[in-house]
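thread: overnight batch results

M.L. [08:02]
morning all. the overnight job finished for the chain we discussed friday. pasting input first so we're all looking at the same thing
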Amino acid sequence: MAPAKNPADDNQGRLTGTQSIERALLLLREIAAHNRSGSRLLDLATRTNLQRPTVHRMLKCLAHEGMVQQDSETHRYFLGPMAFELGLTAAPRFNLREICHPAMSRIAEATGDTVFLTQRSGLDSVCIDRREGTFPIKTFTLEVGMRRPLGVGTGSLAILAALPEDEVRGIITSNEPRLSEHGLNGPALLSQARKAQKLGYAVRETPTLAGVRSIGHVLRNQSGMPFAALSISAISSRMADRRVQELATLLRNEARLVERLIANGMEFR
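M.L. [08:03]
and the structure it wrote out:
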């Protein structure tokens, strides 16, 4: 007779399997966050607090499945073709871009500046769309698909500032080790969130781009929770305080229109 199976063995197996999935997703998020320049094995091990042999094994598996790829010259890792294909497949179910397209076009046409749509993704934010205005000097502070810690970037800051107080503090604490890459620290980001809460919108100079100023307004779902933001970026000379107030009104009005569309049934799934 076969020995009785220990339920603890099943629990341990599930735990190990779940942990592996969580680690793989953590690696993918880190690679996505630095996909423009790529990530070295050492970088990924450091940022994820995983052992290098573990990271190496997981990267080999992800590369075999096409989820990541390694540049043969720099040995840096990037998202692979399968990640792109999965994104294309998922896109029709997440139609926030489609809902916001008219609003972004109106804002870009009215201001002449660059408009961004940013969505929350856990502890991060992701730029999911961009519209260019007619003003000849462009300010591309974000690329579509760029992932950064929540609060980095003006639209992202607008989302963070609109969250409940305990969640704001928890997110900043969790992300603090990553903030230095973007010229920020925890207290500075908390101060910026406080300012945005007081104003009702986020406005800031871009730390990594001199002479660029941006303004962002949160989007809320039907439950009133912040999940995305619209933002405008321009050279600082076009963002004097008086115009900032005008743009804040424009963004607020367009945000309300988007929220009304969502409430009336055009909700992204």
